[in-house]
Amino acid sequence: MSRSYVHGRSDRESTRLLDQASGLGLLLHNGTTYPAGSTVLEAGCGVGAQTLLLARNSPQARFISVDISAESLARASERVSGEGLINVTFGQADVCNLPFRHGTFHHVFVCFTLEHIPDPLLALGRLKNVLRPGGTITVIEGDHGSALFYPETRAAHKVIDCLVSLQRQAGGNALIGRELGHLLADAGFVDITVSPRQTYASPAIPGSSEAVKRIFIAMIEGVREAAIAEGLSDTKDWDRGIRDLYRTTEKDGMFCYTFFKAVGKKGDTAPDA
Amino acid sequence: MSRSYVHGRSDRESTRLLDQASGLGLLLHNGTTYPAGSTVLEAGCGVGAQTLLLARNSPQARFISVDISAESLARASERVSGEGLINVTFGQADVCNLPFRHGTFHHVFVCFTLEHIPDPLLALGRLKNVLRPGGTITVIEGDHGSALFYPETRAAHKVIDCLVSLQRQAGGNALIGRELGHLLADAGFVDITVSPRQTYASPAIPGSSEAVKRIFIAMIEGVREAAIAEGLSDTKDWDRGIRDLYRTTEKDGMFCYTFFKAVGKKGDTAPDA
């Protein structure tokens, strides 16, 4: 996995991801707690945005949080220690090539990771291998096709499409949220539930439009140079699209986005991949 | 209001609308009940799809359900009587030219009506006039831009866009759901809340994909002839798009759609329009 991520690692991105986790924590983590004594693999912890919430919400569970990037892990570790949380162990690992024995974990948690992986089905198979029979996997991903806003302009959609295209070029899929149900089924998980988690922002709801700027628009802005370098946009169109996105956070504007959360179980007799 | 609706009045459409109301009843009507003794205007009741649910859910409230179409009213009345409901009175009226005195109603309910009206702000102003100070207005509308599905194809989006274009040509707005918040604010309502109500369908969820076929795809199919006659599509592209929509209800497919429900209050000192 030497390919580079489209987004997720710069300084501004780290801030964005931590903002994202705190602001969206309730929405995304609602329903996710792990029993005392259970061992949970967080696959693709990045800079620790979700790790903090996992560790706080299940203080009696033990988390093994892995990521491919040593740099991200260092930040995640610092952040988690800084909060006084002692139930997380970090380790460098490739989600598609995990250094754990079969059936090591009671549960697996994956958030904003499959979107970057060229073969999400392979990753899910590997995660199933290290999960105990009867254990659960929780997967959370966004889907940029869910962005619905007012005023709606073609220019705004085009800058979003630039990120979708760049992520696809890098082997990822920014529209993976809608696929979580069938991906878990195809990977052999059972008792699958999918719950869309939709955000609605407008200037009338305190803080909501600020979150759209900090989280969504900042993410799009992060690929400006790449989009222009790849010929997917030019300076003028790009700036118009970004301006139009900001406009959705003002006056009569609104912005909706849907995350998808899927939970599946490894059957008691599931064969390993 | 002599313009014709893009959809909503044929026999097949009546069935579709009744299906829609029963299947989506819980999702859309959750939170909507009216106190005993209150008088509620349902503006644009059509064939009575929502009327049934309103009357059942608030048996001690009295509903005045109006529509511009005598034919729709006859069906609505028959349906409501057939269910033994006695708390609804029907009347023919134009939402933008209501035959009621100012402050007649304790509450107003409007569902799938503003999408057909060229000047929704005018309609909301008229509805505010007949509402008592302190009374609420509840507005529910879909937004076809919220359709998110897998597999996603351009052909499928194009047939949806045909309906959006035809509805716009007829003076309506199939993307009005996202605008409910600012429309209520612009009309002078206060204490406005907007709650997106998202449906998620997949073959793994019993009945859900059937509902997508009966409700959403049937609605799109209803404008086939008009779309082709207007040159918005041709037979081949149309059939491909419809086939692709059906595909989202099969195998690994999924289909999401968001309705928007907005509630506002007429302030105690609100001036009439």
Kindly summarize this structure in a few lines.
Two copies of one chain form a homodimer. Chain A is built from nine helices and eight strands. The first copy, chain A, is α/β, with parallel strands linked by helices and 273 residues long.
What does this protein look like?
Two copies of one chain form a homodimer. With 273 residues, chain A is α/β, with parallel strands linked by helices. Helix content of chain A is 40%, strand content 23%. Chain A has nine helices and eight strands. In chain A, strands 1, 2, 3, 4, 5, 6, 7 and 8 form an eight-stranded mixed beta sheet that branches. In chain A, strand 1, helix 2 and strand 2 form a beta-alpha-beta unit. The longest helix of chain A has 19 residues. The first copy, chain A, starts with 10 loop residues before the first helix and ends in an 8-residue tail after the last strand. The model of chain A has no long low-confidence stretch (mean pLDDT 93). Chains A and B meet through strand 6, helix 6, strand 7 and strand 8 of A and strand 6, helix 6, strand 7 and strand 8 of B.
